[in-house]
Amino acid sequence: MCLLIFYYAVYIHASNNWDVLPVIQKVNTISAILLILGLEYFTKKEDFAHIKPRKEKYQVTKR
Q1: Does residue 63 surpass a pLDDT of 80?
Q2: CA-CA distance, 13 to 22, in Å (whole number)?
């Protein structure tokens, strides 16, 4: 949803429809803030357990 609002804002900017652009930019900013807050406060560590860290190509040595 956040990406759709962003793409719509880019489309309005490219089509030179300056009347609606400030409103859409505010909606875009609010939706991005809500997305970040939602990820911060409403997800758990278990939600991302299926993501494995990448293995390093080079072995790091301690000196």
Answers
A1: no
A2: 10
